[in-house]
Design a protein that fits this description.
This protein has two domains: 212 residues, P-loop containing nucleotide triphosphate hydrolases (Rossmann fold); 69 residues, 2-Layer Sandwich (Alpha-Beta Plaits), CATH 3.30.70.2580. Helix content is 34%, strand content 30%. The chain is built from eleven helices and 14 strands. Helix 4 runs antiparallel to helix 5. The two termini are 42 Å apart.
Length: 296
């Protein structure tokens, strides 16, 4: 049975005159993989730092596991946060970093961590200062997965990794999640290749939550209509549909419209010789976070 393990109410954060977060309300349930999406500067890292008490805001409330979250060491010990950059002592070896993590996280599985090192070919004898950017990311992946924390947060976990290693990461995450269910919150810019593992998606735009819902439901919020320009434009106008994006070449047009379409609308579109196709999560993310002046 799923239960709410993270609640946020009215959370805001300013950096001087810049509003990084603006009245955030959010709830996360146990046993789900969440995608946290937003353009650069949308407030993703600020939100993650507030959740984990790395920074403070006087406005709003954060509840972890039913308790006030601010500087709550008991609750924070049940969270593993792997930020985009870790400041490990440069002289420490990978094996020493793993040993330190094993003392810090009560459910840390050192045997699993060692097996992940072998899988990703991460040499435990290497010093942190000698790791490439890609292997720094791999170390964060190993730590985050092996911690087996009730909430595991990754901020851009696959920076510097090639496609083959990224695929290994997704496979390892899904396999361990299926064997040891817990909540993952993944912040990433690689939306298309991550989309299939997200159960729910949180989208930030300019410090506000513009979507928080199951990924499957989110995909139903838009559909692409393609065909002859005149037929597409006439259909959209007659059905009073909201256009999210418009593309065209010659006499052909592709319009992304707000969905879902009714069964009758789909039949009318087919009768007008229009093709209906799903809109990818990445495309929908782009449309939902487009700046106001650039929206169609």
């Amino acid at each position: 049975m799923m239960n709410t393990i993270l609640e946020i109410h009215g959370l805001s954060k300013n950096y001087g005159s810049v509003r990084a977060l603006d009245q955030i309300d959010l709830q996360l349930e146990s046993g789900k993989i969440y995608g946290l999406l937003g353009r650069n500067g949308a407030g993703k890292t600020t939100l993650l730092n507030l959740i984990t008490s790395r920074i403070y805001s006087p406005t709003g409330q954060i509840w972890l596991f039913g308790q006030p979250g601010l500087n709550n060491q008991e609750a924070l010990a049940r969270i593993c946060y792997m930020p985009e950059k870790n400041l490990f002592p440069t002289g420490m070896r990978v094996s020493e970093i793993l040993g330190t993590a094993a003392r810090f996280y009560p459910d840390f599985d050192r045997g699993y961590a060692d097996s992940l090192c072998r899988l990703f070919q991460l040499d435990p004898r290497k010093k942190y200062k000698n790791l490439s950017r890609g292997y720094e990311s791999i170390l964060r992946v190993v730590l985050g997965l092996a911690a087996r924390a009730e909430i595991t947060i990754f901020d851009e976990p696959i920076l510097g990794l090639d496609a083959a290693i990224r695929d290994l990461y997704y496979q390892a995450l899904i396999q361990d999640y299926s064997e040891h269910p817990r909540t993952f919150l993944l912040s990433t810019h690689l939306i298309d290749e991550s989309a299939e593992i997200f159960e729910d998606v949180v989208i930030l735009k300019e410090g506000r939550v513009v979507a928080c819902e199951p990924a499957a439901a989110l995909r139903q919020r838009s559909v692409a209509l393609s065909g002859r320009s005149e037929a597409v434009e006439t259909f959209v106008r007659d059905q009073n549909l909201t256009v999210l994006n418009r593309e065209g070449i010659g006499h052909l047009a592709i319009l992304a419209v707000r969905g879902p379409l009714t069964g009758e609308q789909r039949s009318l579109a087919q009768a007008a010789d229009l093709e209906l196709t799903p809109v990818s999560l990445q495309k929908l993310f782009i449309y939902l976070t487009e700046s106001q002046e650039r929206q169609v």
